[in-house]
Design goal:
393 residues; alpha/beta; Rossmann fold; GMP Synthetase, Chain A, domain 3; nine-stranded mixed β-sheet; 10 helices; 21 strands; 27% helix; binds 5'-O-[hydroxy(phenylacetyl)phosphoryl]adenosine
Length: 393
């Protein structure tokens, strides 16, 4: 498969490391071998400086705003200069090329468009690669199906759970023209990959990213390797640390991903703690790219749940529940995937109508949860740490 930017993506590692060191020094005035001594940046720092406190350029130089899909307090606002948008488009073009996309490929983007980075991120990447983009955005599955059938897209970009929902809706998903899928924004497994591949007869690839660092395209898998997402190391330095001690873990060991952006202008981040747990390898890949690869995200360091691409913090659900008169502070969050889409059920004790609680959760957090009001005493009481979340996925 042709590589979109071979000069960067296949750069010999010693040269790449020199480039990284130069860019780190230019941006932060820090030597590469002193990076691990620097303080971490955390999400709460970004939140505390809401909305624009951490911008390093005047807002007039920013041409775009996005926000994380988090439900904890206010959204985290991020901003991009014209050059940041161009780099982001390059990274997403790399991801699409790594999925077999080429100029002229029809790319169907069913990630949400708007403040969420998924839709516009892949959209600009597809245009950058000179593909033909179908900006379907999320939702309205019958229309997605119709467009996929009629416009014969070769590449589908959406969350893995939504891909399966689309497959379910179609009588014969295998009859579409899809060759590859660029799936991410939520945790998924090899089992889900196989189910999607079987349904559509395509190659399903992982794409990872987070708004704070850029959006989708921080890393992405290639068709040839299909075994770990290549991190765009000419733009992002990756460290993997023990979430407790903050010390580096060994190559191939699972730890928290920490990114330093070495080309971003509007919102450069030094040692940003993602909360995402994964391992990283620098072993060569058969595709020829020299960039390190990260494993699937195997978990999170905090209590954040990702439900249909929306980040949900149990502590926030608790906060909302406890503001409703008549509810007891006994609750449990049950996350299931009855078919392909995640479902959140909030079980709580008290004397309030479920519809009231449901409406309040929707209003305060923008989440669409089922609510079950249970008899007093029916939720298991904790004998130590409370088990607030039952993740049955
Ligand atoms: O989800 C960016 C994105 C859009 C990535 C489209 C891929 C495709 P946020 O809304 O800021 O940004 O959420 C970021 O989502 O810290 C992870 O916990 C989770 N996440 C993103 N990609 C993956 C993935 C976008 N491939 C948070 N596997 C991250 C598992 C993922 N989790």
């Amino acid at each position: 498969m042709p590589i979109f930017q071979p000069e960067q993506e296949t750069m010999p590692r010693p040269e790449l490391e020199r480039l990284q060191a130069d860019r780190l020094r230019a941006r932060f005035g820090i030597e590469r071998d002193r990076l691990a001594e620097q303080p971490f940046t955390t999400k709460s720092q970004l939140r505390d400086s809401y909305p624009f406190g951490m911008l390093k350029v005047p807002l007039t130089e920013c041409i775009r705003i996005h926000a994380s899909s988090g439900t904890r307090g206010k959204a985290t606002i991020v901003a991009y200069t014209r050059n940041d948008i161009a780099v982001w488009a390059d990274c997403c073009a790399r991801a699409l090329a790594a999925a077999g996309g080429a100029p002229g490929s029809v790319v169907h983007v069913a990630y949400g468009y708007g403040l969420f980075t998924g839709g516009l991120g892949l959209h600009y990447g597809a245009e950058r690669l000179a593909c033909t983009v179908v900006p379907a955005s999320g939702g309205n599955t019958p229309r997605q199906a119709q467009l996929l059938e009629d416009l014969r897209a070769e590449i589908l970009c959406c969350t893995p759970s939504y891909a399966l929902a689309i497959a379910d809706y179609l009588d014969d998903p295998g009859s579409l023209a899809l060759r590859a899928g660029v799936f991410g924004a939520e945790p998924w497994t090899e089992g889900l990959r196989e189910a999607i591949e079987r349904a559509f007869g395509l190659t399903a690839l992982d794409i990872y990213g987070l708004s704070e660092v850029m959006g989708p395209g921080v890393s992405a898998e290639c068709v040839e390797g299909r075994d770990g997402a290549h991190i765009n190391e000419d733009h992002f330095l990756v460290e993997v640390v023990d979430p407790e001690s903050g010390e580096a873990v060994g190559e191939g060991e699972v730890g928290e991903l920490v990114f330093t952006t070495i080309t971003k202008e509007a919102l450069p981040l030094l040692r940003y703690r993602t909360g995402d747990l994964a391992s990283v390898t620098r072993k060569p890949c058969k595709c020829g790219r020299t960039f390190a690869r990260m494993s699937r995200i195997v978990g999170r360091t905090d209590d954040m749940l990702v439900i249909r691409g929306v980040n949900v913090f149990p502590s926030e659900v608790e906060r909302v529940l406890l503001e409703i008169p008549g509810l007891e502070p006994h609750y449990q969050l049950v996350v299931e995937r009855p078919q392909h889409l995640d479902e959140l059920t909030v079980q709580v004790e008290g004397d309030v109508r479920a519809s009231v609680v449901r409406a309040q959760l929707d209003r305060a957090l923008g989440i669409n949860a089922k609510v079950e009001i249970l008899r007093p005493g029916s939720i298991p009481r904790s004998e130590g740490k409370a088990l607030r979340v039952r993740d049955l996925r």
